[in-house]
Design a protein that fits this description.
Helix content is about 35%, strand content about 15%. With about 300 residues, it is an alpha/beta fold. The strands form 3 sheets. The chain has a 4-stranded parallel beta sheet, with helices on one face. Strands 3-4-7 form a 3-stranded antiparallel beta sheet. Strands 5-6 form a two-stranded antiparallel sheet. The structure holds zinc ion. Zinc ion (ZN) binds near residues 120, 122, 150 and 151.
């Protein structure tokens, strides 16, 4: 009886694994993306979980529909399967960020009501002149100068009914440590105000910033594990602060080491020869790539 009770409790407490792959349609997928997405797929499959495809096209200035359909085509060619996505639907859609503005605006409204975001009038140049470079160079990748806090205490008339028209920054507590256990990279520690400053969650061009969109989507799509590249470790620290502010559950993180070329340089989108399209065109088969990913596991 006790044993049965225990079984029931543990099975009802078990949370279904939900992972996601989230391409940005700003270019063709390359080998680096493919390996990370393949790892995400393998981890979801090994746990009998669900993989979600989310198109991260929240920035209309950079995203193109042709790259979105190319990404879907390339991922299918590689042999990755997803159960929810813009092409197959699902219970937590829409699965393209360009169609999720309402959710982001609600989160922004909550942050504003909590007094955790403020409009910033600084230009990029102001910040470059006043800010200092991030203390920790080792993580690199997604870096911007640490915002000096110029507009933190600036009085503003709040007549805005939405975020449109200003850069809204999330206020961090200077000196606060953000610590998380990465399933691949081990324990990570970042310090707010040193590694990153108050960061933009909504831009004056009326675009939801990456950090906010991702946090809202991972929560509403009930993602339990985030698999992505190690260039985003510092973003994870920022996102954890947003999750706490919005009372969202924290997913687990697995950051894959970055794929580098033969000279040790990070693969970037400009390495066109390493896009899945060019590889396929030059006769590389999907099975060959999968074998390579399995041998050189994240
Ligand atoms: Zn400012």
């Amino acid at each position: 009886m006790e044993e049965l009770k225990e079984k029931l409790t543990s099975s009802s407490a078990r949370v279904e694994y939900r992972g996601r792959i989230a391409p940005s349609p700003t270019g063709y997928l390359h080998l680096g993306h493919a390996r990370t997405f393949w790892t995400a797929y393998e981890r979801a499959r090994a746990r009998g979980g669900t993989l979600v495809l989310r198109m991260e096209d929240s920035d209309p200035r950079r995203s193109r529909a042709e790259f979105a359909s190319a990404a879907i085509e390339d991922l299918r060619w590689l042999g990755i399967e997803w159960r929810e996505g813009p092409d197959v639907g699902g219970a937590f859609g829409p699965y393209a960020q360009s169609r999720r503005r309402t959710f982001y605006a609600e989160a922004w409204e909550r942050l504003r009501a909590l007094g955790l975001v403020y409009p910033c009038a600084c230009t990029r140049r102001d910040i470059a002149l006043a800010g200092q470079a991030p203390h920790d160079e080792q993580h690199g990748g997604d870096d911007e100068p640490v915002y000096p806090g110029t507009c933190r205490t600036r009085a503003y008339v709040s007549s805005a009914s939405g975020p449109r028209g200003a850069n809204w920054r999330f206020r961090v507590n200077d000196g606060e440590e953000v610590v998380f256990e990465d399933l691949k990279q081990g324990r990570q520690t970042f310090v707010a105000g040193r590694d990153f400053g108050d960061f933009v969650v909504w831009s004056r061009e009326d675009v939801t910033a990456y950090q906010l969109a991702v946090v809202v989507d991972d929560a509403l799509m009930k993602i339990t594990e985030v698999v992505r590249g190690a260039d985003l470790l510092k973003s994870t620290a920022r996102q954890i602060l947003l999750q706490r502010a919005l009372s969202y559950p924290a997913p687990e993180y697995f950051h894959c080491p970055l794929v580098t070329d033969e000279r040790g340089r990070r693969l970037a989108k400009r390495h066109d020869a390493l896009s899945l399209r060019s590889l396929r065109a030059s006769g590389v088969g999907a099975e060959e790539l999968r074998a390579r990913f399995r041998a050189d596991e994240c």
